[in-house]
Amino acid sequence: MTVHVLETEGQVCPFPLVEAKRAIAGIPSGDELRIDFDCTQATDSLPRWAADEGYAVTHFDRTGDASWTITVQKP
After folding, report:
1. Annotated domain spans of the chain
2. What fold characterizes domain 3-73?
3. What is the DSSP string of 2-28?
4. Are 8 and 43 contacting, i.e. CB atoms less than 8 angstroms apart?
5. Which amino acids are annotated catalytic?
6. What is the pLDDT at residue 29?
7. Cβ atoms 46, 39 nearer than 8 A
8. pLDDT (tens digit per residue) in 28-73
């Protein structure tokens, strides 16, 4: 399993979600995508998208005053 990293800091919503959808489409099944972001709305939209698509959230953490990381696994 490989962890792919998507840096979206500085991007306003919905771009972290748009970029995550594009990035996960290009990785193999079983791999994980770590999304680093600082858009407050994405703290809700990214986990909801993962659940809707059947991607397991393996990690979700606040990394700073206004930054987070979430890792989803592609089935």
Report:
1. 3-73
2. Translation Initiation Factor IF3 (3.30.110)
3. -EEEEE-TTPPTTHHHHHHHHHHHTS-
4. no
5. 13
6. 97
7. no
8. 999 999 999 999 999 999 999 999 999 999 999 999 999 999 999 9
